[in-house]
Design brief:
heterodimer; A: about 575 residues; Rossmann fold; nine-stranded mixed β-sheet; about 40% helix; B: 4 strands
Chain lengths: ~575, ~110
């Protein structure tokens, strides 16, 4: 009985499966059986086998695996791609495997029996390896192979009790039933922990999910967690496991555009923050991404570009046309592209791939272009859940991430299609404006940027062959003008100023002329005055001479008359 | 033995004079194991007298042997010779079914 075994808090047995230990808060209940059920191809066998093999490799707990479905050779081959060397482990006496084959046609039943043979086989393997863990895949084959269900049921009950008494942690798999968790109601016997695996196909895209149905004596995550199977085996991707307790920094990274850095408090994005660049088609979202990548590589750091829309060669070519030579970074190994169609696989696999790539490549910055394409493979809630995990993951790693998001035309541009803006630290909005001059021009503004005094200004955003340039828009006379309207308005302003200047000059010239004329007049009058003065002098002297002459003449006359 | 005209499907007829090698797997000498062994010897004496051999394997003593013959249930009777291999599970209390199972009686 379980009661006599342990009264101390439930001890956990770590599985070593990525994520599973997080949502079970430490692993499976130690010394007890756990039922793993699910439909065909959901990864039950893999989970059970990984539990055993990782137990040996990572926790040094020998294990026993009893398979009713595949031979040891087949299983060894199946997991060889995960890097598991089952034969080696068997040679080292860390692992014992037994393939139990029941051929109904060659078996006749007469009278009472029990399954002691199974117990003996399990026991001998447990003793031989000193096993702490047992995997049984799947017991339900017994129901197909042997008649008399009542005997089987009582024997199964005995088996689980026996396993508990042995103190081994057991994983039993079971096929999903129609109305019950398992086809033959195995959950009736395993009351400690039940894990349900599901493989759903939505919109032609398969998604694996894992859920802890029950876990007696322990709290656990209750959600359906996306799960994936890749070359590293099974992994569960829990939101909660990542948490929000990441370290933050005041370090900044350049956006790759000097003036945008200026708008973001003068220094650019925070390191480890998430940046959303949203806008309608053709507003230059990818270009902003390329600028960011270029700046990262220029600093000698690595950057990862996840492209859901364009091939790397196409991105490289297009960005070269606006002056970002991404090829040099690819060649130097600073930039890695990962281009897949969003519809290639489900969200959880995308997430897993991203995490794996980041672990391999260790980039300082990541660009995901665009996140909106993911809506083909999941609902908005699912994408949001996935992005939450992506962002938490990147923040934990201190990676600055730039997401682009395509806004469908017509809708309000302050609304992203995947509704993720609340997850983002910085949101740069790009917008096309149509002008009266028959143009569409790009505008950029920083809608929000947590933790910095960002600019509230709208900037015109132009793509030149030397990169992205931000230009002040024309603000005046109650309008905001861009593009050629801005140029025209600026020209008009210039002409008007010029006219005023010319007018002033003309007026000045007039006045100067007038002044000159007056001067001339003054000179003429002065001259006249001088002449007059001269005349006056002449007149005076001639008058004097005349007077003298008159005196002389009178004297001479008197003399001639001999007057007295 | 000279040929006999077969009119009655009497018991000792169908088996040709070949050697029967039977193995009975048990796990400890439980009452069920003892019953199975008794039932088996009785049947053999009646139908296979002189040309059979019964080997009893106690899995508690030789657990390794269980995997070889794919034994899960006990008691299990395995007909090792003549081929093909046959398995009969249970305490062999129903002799008719055992005879059918061993191909000593047509189905």
């Amino acid at each position: 009985m379980t009661a006599k075994k342990k009264i101390a808090p439930l001890e956990k047995c770590p599985t070593g499966i990525r994520g599973l230990d997080d949502i079970t808060q430490g692993g499976l209940p130690r010394g007890r059986p756990t039922l793993v059920c699910g439909g065909t191809g959901c990864g039950k066998t893999l989970l059970a086998l990984e539990f055993i093999v990782r137990g040996i490799l990572e926790f040094d707990e020998p294990g026993v695996f009893m398979s009713f479905e595949e031979t040891s050779e087949e299983l060894a081959k199946n997991v060889a791609s995960l890097g598991f060397d089952l034969e080696g482990l068997i040679r080292d006496q860390k692992l014992a495997m037994d393939y139990v084959h029941i051929e109904r046609s060659e078996i006749e039943v007469t009278g009472e029996y029990d399954l002691e043979g199974l117990f003996v086989r399990l026991n001998s393997m447990i003793v031989e390896t000193g096993a702490k863990r047992v995997g049984i895949d799947s017991l339900e084959a017994l129901f197909a192979g042997l008649p008399s269900e009542s005997i089987l049921r009582s024997e199964l009950r005995r088996l689980f009790r026996w396993l508990k008494d042995k103190g081994v942690t057991t994983v039993i798999t079971g096929e999903k039933g129609k109305n019950e968790l398992t086809r033959h109601g195995l959950e009736e016997y395993v009351s400690d922990c039940v894990i349900f695996l599901d493989h759903r196909v939505v919109n032609k895209v398969g998604t694996r999910l894992l859920r802890i149905v029950k876990y007696r004596g322990s709290s656990h995550g209750t959600n359906e967690y996306p799960t994936m199977i890749d070359e590293h085996g099974l992994s569960v991707l829990p939101i909660s496991s990542l948490g929000m307790d990441y370290a933050v920094t005041t370090e900044r990274v350049s956006s790759g555009i000097e003036r945008l850095d200026m708008m973001l408090g003068g220094k650019g994005y925070y390191k480890g923050s998430s940046v959303l660049v949203s806008g309608t088609a053709g507003t230059g979202k990818s270009s902003l991404g390329a600028a960011f990548v270029d700046a990262t590589c220029r600093r000698g750091e690595r950057s990862l570009y996840l492209a859901f829309e364009e091939a790397p060669a196409q991105i490289t070519r297009n960005m070269a046309s606006i002056g970002y030579d991404l090829e040099q970074w690819t060649k130097k190994g600073l930039l890695r592209f990962h281009a897949v169609r969003a519809t290639l696989y489900g969200l959880e696999q995308h997430l897993g791939t991203i995490i794996q790539l980041v672990h391999e490549f260790k980039p300082a910055t990541v660009v995901i272009d665009p996140i909106t394409n993911l809506s083909a493979v999941g609902s908005i809630e699912e994408i949001k859940a996935m992005l939450t995990r992506v962002i938490d993951f990147f923040k934990n790693q201190g990676i600055t991430t730039l997401f682009t998001s395509l806004t469908e035309g017509g809708g309000p541009s302050e609304q992203t299609d995947v509704g993720v803006s609340s997850l983002m630290d910085t949101w740069v909005l790009l917008r096309n404006v149509e002008t009266l001059a028959g143009e569409r021009n790009r505008l950029l503004f920083v809608l929000k940027s947590r933790g910095m005094a960002h600019s509230n200004q709208v900037r015109e955003f132009t793509l030149t062959d030397r990169g992205i340039r931000l230009i002040d828009v024309y603000v005046g006379a109650g309008t905001v003008l861009t593009g050629s309207s801005r140029l025209i308005q600026e020209a008009q302003d210039k002409a008007r100023t010029e006219a005023l200047r010319q007018e002033a000059m003309r007026r000045q010239r007039e006045l100067e002329q007038e002044k000159a004329q007056v001067q001339v007049q003054i000179e003429a009058l002065q001259h006249k005055a001088a002449v007059l003065a001269e005349n006056i002098d002449t007149l005076a002297s001639s008058e004097k001479a005349r007077l003298e002459a008159a005196v002389n003449c009178r004297a001479q006359l008197a003399g001639a008359r001999q007057a007295d | 033995m000279p040929k006999k005209t077969q009119t009655d499907p009497a018991p000792p007829l169908s088996p040709p004079p070949e050697f029967w090698k039977l193995r009975l797997y048990v796990a400890g000498m439980t009452p069920r194991a003892v019953a199975a062994f008794d039932n088996l010897t009785k049947l053999c004496e009646e139908h296979l007298a002189g040309c059979y051999e019964i080997e009893v394997v106690d899995l508690l003593v030789n657990p390794k042997l269980a995997a070889g013959d794919q034994i899960l249930a006990v008691p299990t009777l395995v007909r090792r010779l003549p081929p093909p291999m046959k398995k009969i599970i249970g305490d062999l209390s129903n002799q008719e079914r055992v005879l059918v199972g061993l191909d000593l009686r047509p189905r």
